[in-house]
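Quick one, C-alpha cells below. Sequence please?
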C-alpha cells in the first residue's frame, strides 16, 4: 500500500465515487479499500465530518431494536476497538459500559425480552438491581428503578477522530479523498449511473454512493431517486465540571425520562430524545451549512432537563457549559436507508441514521462495501434496505410530520402492535368509510390504512397497549373463530398487484419464480423468487390471466422491492413489461368453510370443488359488477380472493355484506389474518423468511419446480444444499401454557440449549395457546426425530415455557380444509 495519495486533482474516472465525508462515507471508503477496491474517490462538499458527524455524542450502545441494527452496532464496536492500533489515529474509545433503566413493569418486560434476544446475538449483558446501579453510578437517584441491564462492553468514541481514522485507513488502501468538492449532478444513461459532476469537473463512474447525510435527499433528487429522510433538531447539554464524575462511569440510558447521561471531560452530558421533535428545514437543507449549530430553544428542552435533574440531582446545583442543538436526519420508520436505489443501477445509498450513525457506522460501511463488490449484502438487512420505502414517502410534508414522532421512538415503549400516531391517512381504500362504520381499528402499512381488528358495538376502536392480552384480544378471538367455523371478510386492497405482460412474459417469469409458470390460463401459483444463493427475495402468488399476461400479487410493503427485483432480472431485450395496477383494484378476501355457500348465493358460475378447484382463478359476476376470483388461502380455509376494479368495489362489498348475514359473515382484520396464518404455520416474508433463508430451510421446497428446462434463479445453490443434512429448519411451536404470549425474537431452547429465535408469534385461538414459528439449528441436522424427541422451551422474559414442536402445521396438517 502507498502512504497518503495525492488528493488534490480530480480524476477523470473512478470505479466508485462516494459522496459525503461523514462517518458513513469514510466507513464505506475504508471497507471498499479493505476489500481491495482502491480506485475509489470520496468527495466532500466542505470538510470531513462537517455535516452531522462532528457534533455527535459518540455513544456506542449495541442492543438496538432489531437484530440487523444490533449486528451493525456489534461489528462497529469491534472495528473501533482496533482502529487506533491499525491506523495510528486515536479514536477516543472509552469502554465504560452502559446501563439501561426500566421504570415501569412494562418497560422491564420489554427490556427483559430484548435482553434475552441480545444474548442469542452474542451481546454481553446482565440484569442488575437498583443497588448495583447505585454502585456503578453513585450520583444517580435509583429509587424508581424497576429493573436495569448492564452492557459492560458498550462505550463511546470521539466521532470526529473515528471518522479521521476511517479516512486514514481508506487513504492507505488507495482511496482518494477530495474536500471542498461539492457534487452538483449525477449523469445517467440507460437506467444506470455514468458520471458524477462536481464544481471541479466530471468523474466517469458506474457506481456512486450517496452518503450525504441530511443532504442525501437532495443528492437523490439529482439522480431522480427518492431518499425519504428529513432533518430534525437534536439536543444535548454539557454541564460545568462535577466532582466524582469520571470517564469510566457507564452511559446511563433512561428511556423513561427520554434522556441519556454520560461523562464528558469531568462534566456531565445529558442527551435528549424528545417525544415531540422539531423538523429542521423541511424543503431543503442549506447547501453551505458546515460545522453548523441551531440556536437552542431552552423552553422546549426544559421539561427534559428537569427530568434529568431528578435522575442526577447534583445537576440542580451545577451550571450549564453548553446546550447544543444540531440537525440529524430521521426516517419514517426509524430505520436506516441502505442499498442500491430501486430505479437507478449503480446508485447506492447509505443515509438516514436516526441518531445512530456513529454506533452503526462501521457495520454500515462493511455492509455497503460488500454489497457493492459482491452485488448483495453480507446478511439480511431488509429492515434497513432502501427498497422497503415508497416513492410517495419523499413528500416533505409527510416526512416533516412523521419525524416529529420517529426521533423519539427509540426511547419510548415498544409495545407489541404499536401503531404510528403521526402522518396517518396517506392511502385509504375506497371502502375505508364502510370499514370504519363496521368498527375497524386501523393500522398502517406502506401508507395504507388497514383494519387490524373490529370493535364491537359500543367499544372504542383504539388500542390499549400492554405486553399481555390487549383490549382487542377477544375481538381477535371472535374473528378467528368466525373464519374457522363460518366465513370472514378481509379487506386487503393494499396488496401490490403487478401485471407482467408480453410475448416473453412466461419465459421471463419462469426463470425468476421457483414454480413452473408454463401453466394454463386461470392457474394460480404460490411461489418464491430466490437470489443466486437460494435465499428468498419474495413470496407471492402469480395468476396466469392469458397467454401473454400474468398477475403478480405481493404484500404492500414489498412493492418497491418486488418491482425492482423483477426489473433487475428481466433482460431488457425481452418483450415483457411490468405495470403496477395496485391502486386500480380492490381486494376482498372471503375465507372460511361457508365461503362457497356465500359466494354461490350472489355470484355467477359453479363454485364447487370440481368446477372451481384450489389454485385456480376465473372472472365472475357479482350483481352488476365483475371481479377476478382467485381460489387461494393464507389462513388455511376454503376461500377466494376477489380482485375488484375500484369503481365496482362498493357494489361488491355491499352485496357480500348483505348476502353474508345468514352465513355468519364477519369483518376480520390483519391481526386475525396473522393469528390464523401462524396457527396454520404459513410463513410471512421479512418475518419468517428472507434473503438468508432458503426454501429448504423454510419448508417451502414444495414450491420448487426442480426440473424446469431452464431451471430458476437459485436452483443450483439449492441443489448443493440439498445434498447435505438440513442443519437449520423452520419449526412451528405451540406453548404448553396458554398464558404467555409470543411476538418475535423469543429464544428457543432445545434440551436446555439455545437453538434459535421465534420469528413470528401470536395467540392461536383454535389451538388454545400462543403459537410461533422459528428456526432451529442443530449440528447433526434438524429432522422429524430431533423435533419430536427434543424437549423444547421458549424463553418469554425470564421464564422458559414448554412447547410442542412440529415440522408440519399443527392445524390441519394435510391442508384438507383449504382444498375441500
Ligand atoms: C446532537 C446529536 C447527537 C448525536 N449522538 C450520537 C451518538 O451518540 N451516537 C451515534 O451513533 N450517533 C449520534 N448522532 C448521529 C450521528 O451524528 C449521525 O447519524 C452521523 O454522524 C451521520 O453520519 P453521515 O455520514 O450519514 O452524515 P454526515 O456526517 O452529515 O455526512 C454527510 C456529508 O455529506 C456531505 N455532503 C452533503 N452534500 C454534499 C455534496 N453535494 N457533495 C459532497 N458532499 C456533500 C456533507 O458535507 C457531510 O459532511 C448524533 C447526532 C446529533 C445531532
Amino acid at each position: 500500500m502507498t502512504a497518503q495519495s495525492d488528493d488534490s486533482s480530480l480524476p477523470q474516472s473512478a470505479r466508485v465515487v462516494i459522496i459525503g465525508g461523514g462517518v458513513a462515507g469514510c466507513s464505506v471508503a475504508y471497507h471498499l479499500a479493505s476489500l481491495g477496491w482502491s480506485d475509489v474517490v470520496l468527495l466532500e462538499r466542505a470538510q470531513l465530518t462537517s455535516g452531522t458527524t462532528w457534533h455527535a455524542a459518540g455513544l456506542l450502545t449495541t442492543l438496538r431494536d432489531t437484530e440487523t441494527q444490533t449486528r451493525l452496532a456489534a461489528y462497529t464496536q469491534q472495528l473501533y476497538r482496533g482502529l487506533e492500533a491499525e491506523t495510528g489515529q486515536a479514536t477516543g474509545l472509552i469502554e465504560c459500559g452502559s446501563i439501561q433503566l426500566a421504570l415501569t413493569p412494562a418497560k422491564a418486560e420489554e427490556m427483559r425480552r430484548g435482553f434475552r434476544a441480545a444474548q442469542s446475538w452474542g451481546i454481553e449483558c446482565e440484569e442488575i438491581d437498583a443497588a448495583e446501579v447505585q454502585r456503578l453510578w453513585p450520583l444517580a437517584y435509583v429509587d424508581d428503578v424497576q429493573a436495569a441491564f448492564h452492557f459492560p462492553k458498550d462505550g463511546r468514541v470521539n466521532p470526529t477522530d473515528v471518522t479521521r481514522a476511517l479516512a486514514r485507513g481508506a487513504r492507505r488502501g488507495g482511496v482518494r479523498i477530495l474536500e471542498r468538492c461539492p457534487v452538483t449532478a449525477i449523469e445517467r444513461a440507460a437506467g444506470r449511473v455514468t458520471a458524477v459532476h462536481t464544481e471541479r469537473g466530471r468523474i466517469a463512474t458506474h457506481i456512486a454512493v450517496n452518503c450525504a447525510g441530511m443532504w442525501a435527499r437532495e443528492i437523490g433528487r439529482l439522480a431522480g431517486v427518492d431518499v425519504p429522510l428529513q432533518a430534525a433538531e437534536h439536543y444535548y447539554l454539557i454541564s460545568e465540571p462535577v466532582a466524582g464524575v469520571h470517564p469510566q462511569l457507564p452511559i446511563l440510558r433512561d428511556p423513561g425520562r427520554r434522556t441519556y447521561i454520560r461523562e464528558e471531560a469531568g462534566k456531565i452530558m445529558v442527551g435528549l430524545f424528545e417525544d415531540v421533535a422539531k423538523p429542521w428545514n423541511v424543503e431543503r437543507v442549506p447547501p453551505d451549512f458546515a460545522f453548523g449549530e441551531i440556536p437552542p430553544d431552552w423552553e422546549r428542552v426544559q421539561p427534559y432537563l428537569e427530568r434529568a435533574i431528578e435522575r442526577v440531582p447534583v445537576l440542580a446545583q451545577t451550571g450549564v457549559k453548553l446546550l447544543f442543538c444540531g440537525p440529524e436526519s430521521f426516517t419514517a420508520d426509524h430505520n436506516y436507508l441502505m442499498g442500491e436505489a430501486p430505479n437507478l443501477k449503480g446508485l447506492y445509498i447509505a443515509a438516514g441514521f436516526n441518531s445512530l450513525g456513529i454506533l452503526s457506522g462501521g457495520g454500515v460501511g462493511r455492509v455497503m462495501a460488500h454489497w457493492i463488490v459482491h452485488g448483495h449484502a453480507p446478511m439480511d438487512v431488509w429492515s434497513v434496505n432502501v427498497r422497503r420505502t415508497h416513492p410517495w414517502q419523499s413528500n416533505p410534508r409527510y416526512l416533516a410530520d412523521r419525524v416529529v414522532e420517529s426521533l423519539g421512538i427509540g426511547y419510548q415503549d415498544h409495545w407489541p402492535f404499536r401503531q404510528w400516531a403521526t402522518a396517518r391517512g396517506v392511502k385509504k381504500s375506497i371502502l375505508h368509510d364502510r370499514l370504519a362504520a363496521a368498527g375497524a381499528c386501523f393500522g398502517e402499512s406502506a401508507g395504507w390504512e388497514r383494519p387490524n381488528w373490529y370493535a364491537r358495538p359500543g367499544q372504542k376502536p383504539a388500542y390499549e397497549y400492554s405486553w399481555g392480552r390487549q383490549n382487542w384480544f377477544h375481538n381477535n378471538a371472535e374473528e378467528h373463530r368466525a373464519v374457522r367455523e363460518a366465513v370472514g371478510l378481509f379487506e386487503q386492497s393494499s396488496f401490490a398487484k403487478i401485471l407482467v405482460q408480453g410475448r416473453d412474459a412466461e419465459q421471463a417469469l419462469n426463470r425468476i419464480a421457483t414454480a413452473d409458470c408454463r401453466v394454463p390460463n386461470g392457474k394460480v401459483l404460490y411461489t418464491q423468487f430466490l437470489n443466486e444463493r437460494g435465499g428468498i427475495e419474495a413470496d407471492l402468488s402469480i395468476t396466469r390471466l392469458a397467454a401473454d399476461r400474468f398477475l403478480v400479487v405481493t404484500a404492500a410493503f414489498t412493492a418497491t422491492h418486488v418491482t425492482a427485483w423483477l426489473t433487475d432480472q428481466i433482460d431488457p431485450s425481452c418483450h415483457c413489461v411490468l405495470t403496477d395496477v395496485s391502486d386500480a383494484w380492490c381486494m376482498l378476501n372471503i375465507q372460511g368453510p361457508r365461503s362457497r355457500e356465500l359466494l354461490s348465493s350472489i355470484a355467477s358460475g359453479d363454485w364447487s370443488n370440481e368446477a372451481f378447484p384450489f389454485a385456480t382463478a376465473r372472472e365472475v359476476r357479482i350483481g352488476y359488477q365483475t371481479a377476478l376470483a382467485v381460489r387461494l388461502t393464507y389462513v388455511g380455509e376454503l376461500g377466494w380472493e376477489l380482485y375488484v376494479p375500484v369503481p365496482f368495489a362498493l357494489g361488491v362489498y355491499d352485496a357480500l355484506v348483505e348476502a353474508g348475514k345468514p352465513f355468519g359473515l364477519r369483518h376480520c382484520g390483519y391481526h386475525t389474518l396473522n393469528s390464523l396464518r401462524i396457527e396454520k404455520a404459513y410463513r410471512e416474508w421479512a418475518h419468517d423468511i428472507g434473503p438468508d433463508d432458503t426454501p429448504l430451510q423454510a419448508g417451502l421446497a414444495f414450491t420448487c419446480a426442480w426440473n424446469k428446462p431452464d431451471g430458476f434463479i437459485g436452483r443450483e445453490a439449492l441443489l448443493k444444499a440439498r445434498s447435505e443434512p438440513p442443519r437449520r429448519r423452520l419449526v412451528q411451536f405451540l406453548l404448553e401454557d396458554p398464558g404467555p404470549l409470543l411476538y418475535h425474537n423469543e429464544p428457543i431452547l432445545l434440551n436446555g440449549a439455545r437453538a434459535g429465535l421465534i420469528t413470528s408469534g401470536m395467540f392461536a385461538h383454535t389451538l388454545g395457546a400462543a403459537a410461533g414459528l422459528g428456526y432451529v439449528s442443530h449440528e447433526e441436522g434438524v429432522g422429524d426425530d430431533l423435533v419430536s424427541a427434543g424437549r423444547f422451551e421458549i424463553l418469554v422474559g425470564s421464564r422458559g415455557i414448554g412447547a410442542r414442536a412440529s415440522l408440519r402445521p399443527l392445524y390441519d396438517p394435510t391442508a384438507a380444509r383449504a382444498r375441500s
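The pocket of flavin-adenine dinucleotide is lined by residues 19-25, 43-46, 50-53, 55-59, 182-183, 211-213, 215, 219, 234, 236, 326, 328, 351, 353, 355-359 (CB under 6 Å). The chain has a mean pLDDT of 97.
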